[in-house]
Structures are given as C-alpha cells and as structure tokens.
C-alpha cells in the first residue's frame, strides 16, 4: 500500500467510522498476540508473551499485575514507542506499525512530565502545538478548560510553583486536550497522596462520562481498577500473559460510594484471588 | 514552597555586598598606608589614591581605549556565542560530527595565544580582526561545552511523551531539547564573557594601535605604573559589568529558573 502516513491515524479513521467507512463495531484498539522484550542496563527481559486484548469506544480497560509484568511496556508498544517482537496492533481495525502509531494516542505517565520553562497554560497547550495549532490559539483553547480542571488563576504559574495534585491536573488537561480517541494512562495517580488521588479519580470519571474516548489504564491498585474500569485485565508475572479478565458490572456514572457495595467487593475479591493476594500470608 | 535561591550569583540585596566591599576597602587602606610609610616610588607601586587620581585625570584616554576593547569583546563574544551554539548542536546531532569536531574544538584551546597573535597580525592586519579572532577563540569553548552538556541532559521520558504525540525530530528539539539546554548554555556564556576580556587584551598585546591591552603595554614600557593600574581597574569593571549583563539576560530570558534548581526540577 503506497499511502502517505496519516498524521494521526486514529483520528483519521475515527472520522471514517462516522462516515460509515468502517464498521461501527471496529474497536479503537486491538492487540493480537503481542510479545515484547524490554532492555535495561544491557540485559534483555521477556516482558510480554502473547498478549491479546481490545478496547472499545467509550470503554475503560484496566491492566493490573505484579510489578515488572510488562504493563508499561505494553503501553509503550501501543503508543508506538517500542517495536514488539511479535504480534499485531490494530487501530480502528487497521494494522499499523510502530512508527504509524505515533500520534494516534495520548500518553500520560506517573511523572507529570511538565516542561519547567512553560507556564501551566503553555504546558496544557503542548499537545495542540505539536499538532500544529498556532501557539496563541492553543493557549486560548487550553485556557477555556482551566476552570473545569480547577486550575483557574494558575494559568501563568510555572510547574515548580504548583502542588503535586495541580501539576498532575495540568498533565491531565494536556492529555485531554490532545483530543486523541485513545488515552494511555500509566499509573497516572501513583505518585499522589490518598486524598489527592481520590480527587483525581473523580476528575477522570467526570471526564470519561462526557466523551467517548477509549482508555487503557495501567494501575497496581485493585480498588482503582474496579472503580474506574469496565473491564480489568490481570497479567501474570514477567513475561506478562493475560491470566484473567474481569467484566465490572457496576452502574455508570461511577461514584466513590460504590466501593462499599457488595458487587464492588466481589469484583475486588475475584481479582485479588487471581493475583494470589487472598491467601492471608501476603500483603 | 520556599523559592530556591537564584542561580545568578550577582543578584540579591545590598546586604550581600557588605562583606566583599568591606574586605576590598580594608585591603586598600592597608595598601595606602604601607606605600606611604615605606615611601615607595610611584613607578614601582602607586598608592590607591594615586591610581584613583590617574583614573580621573586620564578618563578621556581610558574611555577611548576601553571603547576599542569593548568593541573587540562584543564582536568576539557574539561570534563565539553563535559559533559555539551551532557547533554544540552539530556535535550533539550526529555521532560522526561529534567524533570529528570535539577533538578539534579541544585542540583549539591548546593553541598558545602568544604564538598565534603574530600570525593573525600577518593574516588579518592591525585592525580589529586579529583581536576579535583571539577573543572568539577563547570564548567559544565554554559555550560549546555548555551547549553539548545541556542538549545531552534532556529528559528521555519527556522526549518519549512528545514522540507519542507525533512530534518529529525538529519539534522535539524546539519544544524540549533547546529550552532544556538553555540554562547550561548560559553557564557557558558566563564563563565565556569573563575569558573574552582576557582574550581581547591578549589580542592587543601584539601589534595593536589602540585598546586597554595596548595602553597596558605602552604604559608599562614608559614606567607609568599608575596608568597600568588604572587600565587594570577599568578592565576589571568591564569584566564584572559584562558578567552581570549576561546574568541579567539569563534572568530575563529564563524567568522560570527562579523557581527551580539547577537540574531543572523542583
């Protein structure tokens, strides 16, 4: 196929779906038998082995597993930052190689990765600027969303002047403004204290209610996974393989109070069991 | 959070000037007293008061020569800044260029300036040319090193984030790598501006017709020691002034540095 690489394949094909170019059921993300190795300090580890999963429109899929099970590696593969050894990644049904996937998703990591020389407004507008929106217009668009993200009045503050929670909210706004139909969240609240974390989960839930974005969320917190996700996929220790898939049957919109419902606890127990954490002698 | 102390050493209240000012004043008093008691001849060691008087009497002469030296420093430093940043970026951009250029850049610093000056005189004549070249030669090195170090220190995760958003090589350079390198470039520039004063004076030692370095040589030959000291005072003032100017430019151009430590994080 001699087609020019679309700048944002995911975005482009989403339009095609709207026009009926693809079946409406084509998921934004499909992984087929992905195997990948991870290199660190000269050593090579098998990080993933034959991982297949899909994320549908408006769906939140959580990935959970012991540390070092290749969760982050999987997100790197999806984002196009890492070339897997085997397997296929389909965006809207189209198999794309790593280089073609760059720009198809918005990635948010545990570290906020704000640029210290840019103000909160400039950082939030970063993804828009990468897409070619003129700086002034990008800042305008970002500024409109500041009140909704609880950042009003901090537009001109530098990251070093902001609290951890606010920094993460700016990073979150940057991710949301990227306007990608697929969000990759790698333990986005892992570095925050419990209260800020709960607050941020509420932000994420509110954001998800509105849009039809598909989310792939990596977490090591079972409760967070059940609270936020429609499906929780459990990976084994390295090399990571899918060992269990838990469909979360809780009503949306989700509320924090749901963590006390029997259904929530049943889901939580099922996942803890798969992780081997219900034996009583661990954790 | 409490603001981190500014990275620019010349900034701050008047309080921090008390200690160094007092030290200099005390030294001058001791010097003045010693020269007067021992009745040292002025051609051997002039008293500070004599130097001060010479500064005032020769102000026109000193200002004229200082203007020439300042022009040499200004052009040489500007040249060093442009060349230094370009060379630094080239060294960072490609391994081949790094292997080819870095040894040459280092070698250029081992060239003895007194050996080079007469050659430059033959090639470029008696005007500003040779002095500008010597100034640029000594000043570009710290800027190259600062640029290379700054560019190499870029946060890999930030680059991965930009890549995942679809940012190309140039966009990553413009949005992340260059701004991240600027504090390090400025560190190099502060060193460079200080040594560029020495560079200009070295350039003037051979075959000059004007400039503070020329005035130094001529006045030494004529045993006008007070004037030599006056010229040195003016040179020091130029050095401190230019250093402060670069530090000020850094504060204005990198306002975010006021809230961060040297590695760019909180």
UniProtKB/TrEMBL annotation, chain B:
The keyword Endoplasmic reticulum does not apply. Gene3D superfamilies: MetI-like. The chain crosses the membrane at residues 68-89, 101-126, 132-151, 191-216, 228-249. It is found in: Cell membrane. One of its GO terms (cellular component) is plasma membrane. CDD domains: TM_PBP2 (cd06261). It is a multi-pass membrane protein. It holds the Pfam family BPD_transp_1. It comes from the Bacteria. GO terms for biological process: transmembrane transport. Keywords: Cell membrane, Membrane, Transmembrane, Transmembrane helix, Transport. Residues 66-246 form the ABC transmembrane type-1 domain. InterPro entries: MetI-like, MetI-like_sf. Its main location: membrane. The keyword Cell membrane applies. Belongs to the binding-protein-dependent transport system permease family. This is Hydroxymethylpyrimidine ABC transporter, transmembrane component. It comes from uncultured Thermomicrobiales bacterium.
